[in-house]
Amino acid sequence: MAIRRRTWRNVDGEQIEGTWRHAFIRNAGTYFLTDLLIYADGMVDCWDLVTLEEFAGKLASGWVATDLADGAQASAHHLASWKFAEPRMSLTPEMLLGEIRDDIDQLNGRPDSTARCLAALDTFRGQPTEDNRAALREAYEAIPEHLRIYALGDMDSQDWPLRVLVTGPGHRLERHGEDEVVTEDMHAAALRYFTDREQQRQRYADKAPADGPAKPVETSVLINQTVFPRGWPQDPGKLVLRNEFPTPITVGVLTYPTVTHAYWALAVADEHRQDEILRADTPYAAQKLAESSTLRDGWPQARTAIMADLLRAKFNQHPDLAEALTSTGTSRLIYTEMDSTFWGQHGLEGRNWMGRLLELIRSELAAGKLNAPS
Fold first, then answer.
1. For a tag on the chain, would you pick the N or C end, based on fewer CB atoms within 10 A?
2. How do residues 324-351 score in pLDDT, each as one tens digit?
3. Residues 98, 147: Cα–Cα separation, whole Å
4. Among candidates 138, 110, 107, 122, which has minimal Cα distance to 21?
5. Least confidently predicted of 199-208, 220-229, 361-370
6. CB atoms within 10 A of CB 208
7. How does 75-96 read in b/e, with b if 16+ C-beta sit within 10 Å?
8. pLDDT at 4
9. Burial class (CB in 10 A: 0-12, 13-18, 19+), 203
10. Are residues 191 and 125 in contact, defined by beta-carbon separation less than 8 angstroms?
11. What is the arithmetic mean of pLDDT over 111-128?
12. 160-167 and 184-206 helices cross at what angle (nearest 10)?
């Protein structure tokens, strides 16, 4: 079973998604360890780009090798060479071909052989007719043989309950090297297994995490970057959360007009320029002064922590703004920023660190309320 890895190739400007695995190519009596590339359009690259049908032929001929000769020469190209001693391969040609078919299905977002089998299982459980059992059997046998034990994701029972339903009462199946007849009780137990499994999975899916949801359940809040030539609106709403909103904050012995002023003043190394930024008419002017200045050593590593401290100052010093922040509940906060995809989001890009820090401060404010004396 291959570990999913990502690759691609370009065709007429279109990116064709792919995956890859290791394989041996037998050429002129030597086995070469190489990469086998599988693409969503059904093409396979094994030293040559071929169709899946052509690849099956290379498997059948042994050119793509699943059987290694004892004492044969092997090579990993310019990395190493060696001879095989008692080699054992894990896959037959049929197994490898089945895995590659599954890879192609997965790359295209289609159900692979295991998913198709589980769908047939649902159909059989809903209508346990012999025709549906036959369809289930066919779907089960289409799973590469070595992957069948993983079909249910249960390594205790493996695929035994599935095999019981596929076989049916009165028929024999092999277990632990011995044949046994499927009884009515065994068949009923297998059906109960799937009923219990389904109920358990539903309980797990419905279970709320003990300390709250893992992801926001409320609508995201967009904190847009907006310019107001005639001044901020009388009711700015969530715009009070922006760093350029006119809210004086005190840091040490200095009071800055906005978080933006404070951030850029702390960022630059020159003390004279720090004073100019403090007195800049607008947050935009403060940023422009900083852009033409030398930043303090280590600023990129420290900036996130410093910004967090500035936001704490803003919301701790202004309870009305803290209320505006906590009123966003558990929503994801998306901070738009034209000039920085580190701090905000611009279009579909951006790391949104400002939004994340605001969520952190919101959580700290909520924790403060919990710890406050009643």
1. C
2. 999 999 999 999 999 899 999 988 899 9
3. 10
4. 107
5. 199-208
6. 8
7. beeeeeeeeeeebeeebebebb
8. 67
9. exposed
10. yes
11. 97
12. 130
Report the C-alpha gap between 120 and 268 in whole angstroms. 66
Those residues whose C-beta lies under 8 Å from the C-beta of residue 254, and which sit 6 or more positions away, are: 265, 278
CA distances from 256 to 107, 243, 262, 276, 361 (A): 54, 12, 6, 12, 20
103: number of Cβ within 10 Å: 22
How far, in Å, CA of 78 to CA of 108, rounded? 34
H or E stretch covering 57: helix 52-61
Element at 222 (helix H, strand E):
strand 221-223
Q: At what angle do helices 283-291 and 271-278 cross, to 10 degrees?
A: 160
Q: Is the pTM for the entire model greater than 0.70?
A: no
Distance CA 77, CA 47 (A): 13
- Residue type at 76 in one-letter notation: A
Share of the chain above pLDDT 70, in %: 99
- What end-to-end distance do the CA atoms of the chain give, in Å? 58
Determine the Cα–Cα distance for residues 204 and 259; give it in Å rounded to an integer: 44
The secondary structure of 64-122 as a DSSP string is EESS--TT-EEE-TTS-EEE-SS---S--HHHHHHHHHHHHHHHTT---HHHHHHHHHH
Q: Which two tokens stand for residue 113?
A: 């052989």
**What does the alpha-carbon distance between residue 236 and residue 1 come to, in Å, rounded to a whole number?**
57
User: What is the rounded CA–CA span in Å between residue 101 and residue 51?
Assistant: 12
Distance from C-alpha of 300 to C-alpha of 193, rounded to nearest angstrom: 56
Calpha distance 298→267 (Å, rounded): 10
pLDDT at 3: 55
Mean pLDDT in the chain? 94
Beta pairing, strands 64-65 & 14-27: antiparallel
CA 233 to chain CA centroid, Å, is 41
Mean pLDDT, range 268-279, rounded to an integer: 97
Query: 360: which 2 tokens?
Result: 């952190």
C-alpha pair distances (Å), 240 with each of 303, 320, 339? 21, 10, 19
